[in-house]
Every structure is written in C-alpha cells, then in structure tokens.
Amino acid sequence: MILSIIVAASENHVIGHNNSLIWHLPADLKHFKTLTTGHSIIMGRKTYESMGRALPNRRNIVITHQSDFPAPGCELYPNLTDALAATQNEDEVFIIGGGILYRSLWNQADRLYLTRVHTEVPGETTIPAVDPTHWKEVKREDFNADEKNEYAYSFIEYRKIQ
Fold first, then answer.
1. Most distant pair of Cα atoms in the chain: their distance
2. Rounded to whole angstroms, how far apart are CA atoms 118 and 104?
3. Which of 14, 60, 102, 107 could form a disulfide with 74 if both were Cys (CB 3.0 to 4.6 A apart)?
4. Is the Cβ–Cβ distance between 99 and 85 less than 8 Å?
5. Rg of the chain (C-alpha set)
6. Judging by beta carbons within 10 Å of its beta carbon (0-12, 13-18, 19+), is residue 129 exposed, middle or buried?
7. Whether 124 contacts 111, CB under 8 Å
8. Which of 117, 114, 105 is nearest to 136 (CA)?
C-alpha cells in the first residue's frame, strides 16, 4: 500500500483556523477530487465534522474514540493502527486531515501531495515543514490567482527518499 498525505497549506504551514479552511480554491478542490476518487480516505473526527458528510466515490474512514459518532457513509475506527490495517491491501490510501494525523504520519508516508497556497495567514492548525532530506519533489505545477481562486498556488508532489 502507498500511504499518501494530501494537504493544502500556506507559506507559513497553516492548514486551518477554528476547524475550517482558510481559503476557497476551487482548483484545489478539483485536484483533491481527481487524486482521491476511487481510493480510501482517512480523516480525524474534526476533519469529518468540518466537511459535514462522507465524500462520494471514496471509502471514507474516520478516526474517533466515539463508537457511536454519527458519520453516515463512513467507517469508524478507534485509532490509526486499526484504520491502516483495514486498508493494507489497497493500492493507495490518502490521509486527508487533520493536523494530528498529518503530524503523526509525516515521516511515515510514501507520498505527499501538497497544494502550497502562496500567502501567509494566521491559524492554529499547521503541518511540519517539508524536509528536503526526507522528501524529493517529483512534480510541480504553478498557478496564478484568478477570478475563481483568490491566491496563487502550486500543486507539488513529493516522494519519500528511501
């Protein structure tokens, strides 16, 4: 199984504020959908709550200690170990948030799909910096802000250095 992290972060590594996204980038949402459709996505409870629903055409897995947590269309697991065990036979599995899951898997993941949003914003939820001794950039696409996307951004794909 390829374990992939997918995340959008500002230049100062912020990914969220008050359990919500900071920007509206339709191009990033489309990119996220293209990459994750047909795969399992693993998220924490707060990430699920911020989305409010299971995402279509994906196996939605929520990590929560609340066995009766209402998450229609999702599978619940009490910890990351159990969730990863349940997906071990899949080709690629995506970690989609939040900050706690990103930090716990940052150096274990095989791939990192980072949308770098070219701005600095305040926020309490962050990701670690991308360490060039651990991650190798293999693909990059840069985009300017436009009428639909308020900030310039880059889609960057990294592979773990073995």
1. 44
2. 25
3. 60
4. no
5. 15
6. exposed
7. no
8. 114
Measure Cα distances from 81 to 7, 16, 42, 86, 97 in Å: 21, 25, 11, 9, 16
Q: How far is CA 9 from CA 21, 48, 57, 89, 95, in A?
A: 10, 18, 25, 29, 14
Amino acid at 12: N
| pLDDT, average across residues 78-97 | 97
Q: Which ranges of the chain does DSSP label H, i.e. alpha helix? A: 26-36, 45-51, 80-86, 99-105
Who contacts 9 (Cβ-Cβ below 8 Å, separation ≥6)?
Answer: 15, 114, 115, 116, 117, 126, 127
Selection from 5, 41, 34 nearest residue 158 by Cα: 5
**Which amino acid makes up residue 90?**
E
Q: How far is residue 94's CA from residue 99's CA, in Å, rounded to a whole number?
A: 14
* The amino acid at 144: N
Query: What pLDDT, in 10s, does the model give residues 17-70?
Result: 887 778 989 999 999 999 999 999 999 999 999 999 999 999 999 999 998 999
